[in-house]
Specification:
Elements (H helix, E strand, L loop, with lengths): L1 H18 L3 E7 L4 E7 L4 H12 L7 E7 L2 E4 L17 E7 L6 H4 L3 H16 L7 H16 L20 H6 L4 H12 L7 H12 L8 E6 L6 E6 L3 E5 L9 E4 L3 E7 L2 E6 L7 E5 L2 H21 L5 H163 L6 H73 L18 H32 L1
Parallel strand pairs: 1-5
Antiparallel strand pairs: 1-2, 3-4, 3-5, 6-7, 6-12, 7-8, 8-9, 10-11, 11-12
Helix pairs in contact: 4-8, 5-7, 5-8, 10-11, 10-12, 11-12
């Protein structure tokens, strides 16, 4: 039973091993992409290489290989051996770099496919930027301009503003440090060349880049450290498409000795010793030593590959290459025609766009002009309406002003008539005032005369009383001395005679005085009535004059629009008396008349008392 269990266990383990997938992961890094593949364990290098070429779309496979890093150096994946049997890294996934292993002598003739040109362009550009290929500053700027043309297309100043190359690595650091120039200055130099490449397609720009780069001394050269013998100083071996070159360690540009492929009969190595046999037997065999056996194998591999390509270039192309070249030629012709058509269409589109822009600009201009014309028309209509309204207002104002002017003229005429009336009334008033003054003077004179008459009457009365008293005394004396005493009848006769005489005189005198008083009272009353009438006329004239002046002032202000002083009308040869003078005269007359009345009453009282 134990043996059966052991057998079953072994069988199950073997079954699990058979079920496990026999694959491994591979990551291939090209110049512009990364790819991962799942490979079978039995795959050879050629299987993986063909898979990568098919994926990339590459047919010119003889220039490329899969390179990997081993210890301190690099190696190329061999196509005839299985992948896992070679000294590849044991990482998962295993990393390979898909790079150009061999370089053409003339890129324009040998590189057929566009993808081949593009991969070479990217690899050479990286080698120049990494300073693996020496390049002068002038050539670096020119190569950078073609790289910009390949990336951005034709230069457009409206789109490619200053600073658009700030994120691009275009020049080697050695060139940047060699000159004291800013990034903007370098960009300006590159842009100046870039602007001249207008119309060049991407593949053409990349080909121009490679045509300039293939003339550089270090282009396509693989360098290895060697020694000519074990005691000599170090040397450098360069392998390229032309042959083998020996350099001093400090100079990779100018070789000390060269062995072209056409002059080499055989190349071999034994462990660390490498032997170059020239075709000319008279020349010495050149031997050198490398530090590692792996390096000798790599050198021999590169020599064989470059020599095969060298011989292949000098033979008639294979049918496959001829077909590729024919297809490439047709493709280039087709692309050229497409570019020409595209260029024509682009030109036509640009012209159409320019015409469209011009038409749009013209349309906008016409629209602006129409808008401005409409605005001007609206403004003119508004101005016309405003002017019509102003004209109507002005016409109405003119009518109003004419009406007011007519009213002012009528008022002026009325005021002139009123002024004339006022002048006449003032003249009549002054005449009445003069008459009143004369009357007052007359009254004063009459009062004085009456006063004098009263004085004369009083004096006459006194004299009469004195005469009566003297007569009485004389009568008494006569009566006492001459005549005897008479009877009472006689006395009564004389007494009555005297009394009759006195009564008749007094009555006559009283009647005369009363008559004069009555006349005086009537005149005084008449004078007071005249003075009251004169006063009322003065007040009414004064009020009317003020109203007329105010009305004339308002009419003149409305008609002329400004304030005018009251009109002063001069009167020649007319004595103008103010209202204050008239009031003063009336007050004086009122004061004089009561005094006259009091004096007259006093005189009458005295006369009455005397009588």
């Amino acid at each position: 039973s134990e043996e059966a269990f052991t057998k079953r266990s072994i069988m199950s383990i073997l079954g699990l091993k058979k079920k496990q997938p026999k694959t491994f992961k591979v990551k291939v890094i090209t110049m512009d992409a990364e790819m991962e593949f799942s490979c079978e364990v039995k795959w050879k290098g050629k299987d993986l290489f063909d898979l990568v070429c098919r994926t990339v779309g590459l047919r010119e496979t003889w220039f490329f290989g899969l390179r990997y890093t081993v210890k301190d150096t690099y190696a190329w994946l061999k196509q005839e051996k299985r992948v896992l049997d070679q000294e590849v890294p044991k990482d998962c996934p295993i990393t390979f770099h898909f790079l150009a292993k061999f370089f053409p002598e003339k890129v324009e003739e040998e590189l057929v496919q566009e993808i081949t040109q593009h991969l070479f362009f990217l690899q050479v550009k990286k080698q120049i930027l990494d300073e693996e290929i020496f390049c002068s500053p002038e050539a670096s700027v020119l190569l950078a301009s073609y790289a910009v043309q390949a990336k951005y297309g034709d230069y457009d100043p409206n789109f490619h503003k200053p600073g658009f190359l700030a994120q691009d690595e275009l020049l080697p650091k050695r060139v940047l440090m060699q000159y004291q120039m800013t990034a903007d200055m370098w960009e300006e130099k590159i842009t100046a060349w870039y602007a001249e490449h207008r119309g060049i397609a991407r593949d053409e720009a990349e080909m121009e880049y490679l045509k300039i780069a293939q003339d550089l001394e270090m282009y396509g050269v693989s360098y290895f450290a060697i020694t000519q013998n074990k005691r000599d100083t170090d040397l450098l071996l360069g392998v390229d498409a032309q042959g083998l070159h020996i350099y001093s360690p400090n100079s990779k540009l100018s070789p000390n000795k060269s062995f072209p492929w056409s002059g080499i009969r055989n190349i071999s190595y034994s462990e660390k010793e490498f032997t170059i046999k020239p075709l000319d037997k008279k020349k010495d065999v050149f031997k050198f030593y490398s530090s590692q056996l792996r390096v000798n194998k790599l050198i021999l591999q590169l020599c064989i590959g470059n020599h095969d390509l060298f011989m292949r270039r000098r033979k008639v192309d294979s049918i496959e290459v001829q077909q590729m070249k024919a297809q490439a030629k047709e493709e280039k012709a087709r692309k050229k025609m497409e570019r020409q058509i595209l260029a024509r269409e682009k030109q036509m589109r640009e012209e159409a766009e320019r015409a469209k822009e011009e038409m749009e600009r013209r349309l906008f201009q016409l629209q602006d002009e129409a808008r401005l014309a409409n605005e001007a028309l609206l403004r003119s209509e508004e101005t016309a309406d405003l002017l019509a309204e102003k004209a109507q207002i002005a016409e109405e104002e003119a009518k109003l002003l004419a009406h007011k002017a007519a009213e002012a003229e009528q008022e002026r005429q009325r005021l002139e008539v009123t002024a004339m009336k006022t002048k006449e009334e003032k003249r009549l008033m002054e005449q009445k005032m003069r008459e009143a003054e004369q009357l007052a003077v007359k009254l004063v004179e009459q009062s004085e005369r009456r006063l004098k008459e009263a004085d004369h009457l009083k004096q006459d009365l006194t004299e009469a009383k004195d005469a009566e008293r003297r007569a009485k005394q004389k009568l008494l004396e006569i009566t006492k001395t001459t005549y005897p005493p008479t009877s009472s009848s006689t006395l009564m006769y004389f007494s009555s005679t005297r009394l009759d005489f006195k009564d008749s005189d007094m009555k006559r005198l009283s009647m005369e005085i009363e008559r004069e008083r009555l006349e005086y009272m009537e005149k005084s009353k008449h004078l007071q009535d005249q003075l009251k009438e004169l006063k009322s006329e003065i007040e009414s004239l004064k009020l009317e004059e003020q109203q007329q002046q105010a009305g004339l002032y308002g009419l003149h202000s409305e008609a002329r629009g400004y304030v005018q002083e009251p009109v002063y009308i001069p009167h020649s040869n007319v004595c103008v008396m103010t209202s204050d003078d008239l009031l003063f005269l009336i007050t004086a007359i009122k004061v004089v008349i009561p005094k006259i009345n009091n004096f007259t009453d006093h005189c009458y009282l005295e006369q009455g008392l005397t009588l």
